[in-house]
Amino acid sequence: MTITITAFERSPDGGRGLARDMRVRWALEEVGQPYEVRLLSFRAMKEPAHVAIQPFGQIPTYEEGALALFETGAIVFHLAANHAGLLPDDAHARARAITWMFAAVSSVEPVIHELATAKLLEGDKPWKKDRLPLVEERVRDRAKQLSVRLGKADWLDGAFSAGDLMMASVLLRLRVSGILDEFPNLAAYVARGEARPAYKRAFAAQLAVHTSGQLSPPAT
Length: 220
Ligand code: GTB
Known about the structure:
Elements: E1 3-8, H1 21-30, E2 36-40, H2 42-45, H3 48-51, E3 61-64, E4 67-70, H4 72-82, H5 91-121, H6 128-150, H7 162-172, H8 184-194, H9 197-211
Parallel strand pairs: 1-2
Antiparallel strand pairs: 1-3, 3-4
The protein binds S-(P-nitrobenzyl)glutathione.
The site of S-(P-nitrobenzyl)glutathione has 12 residues, from loops.
């Protein structure tokens, strides 16, 4: 059955791995599933046809026959649960890997998202000067806790899993702030993720949207 995901027609980062379709592409590559991509303009993302699949008018979505999913955590879990390669067979190890997926989206991503919001969306607000250091401190606290837990290990719990795929995807967004590099083991962890052949294929596919002339003319 054909798998179709949605992605930005024009991503603010020019398709360099930061938009969240990247983690779905990465998971699809890890489990060896071919997929198609429906590119959406910002306007199309808010239209009823897309909102029927993604109630918040966002990308990515995932369609496979009669199944339509949103939320990257749920999509990556669906792929990991239905194909070999992203979750261990041992029941406890599997439950721990799933725990790391939840940790990525509910304990780590929110503070990183808050930092991006404080810088990009509230950069011109009068409270930025006071708020930004507080947000940065919360990010550093969480990164330090994760860094301590990872220690010298390659991955969070044994072999690479969907938990690492989600966590590395979330941490990637910290690089531009310089905070990721303050934690060398986390920076190396993300780099290990990026070095995986599946990640490289996914990155190339996302970048190609913006460099290969697939773009439609700008909406008027
Ligand atoms: N919780 C949802 C999930 O995990 O699926 C969040 C989905 C989400 O935030 N999607 C964003 C979106 O559609 C794109 S990824 N935003 C448009 C909107 O809300 O109207 C966020 C993102 C976009 C671009 C960059 N970038 O270019 O640097 C980074 C992150």
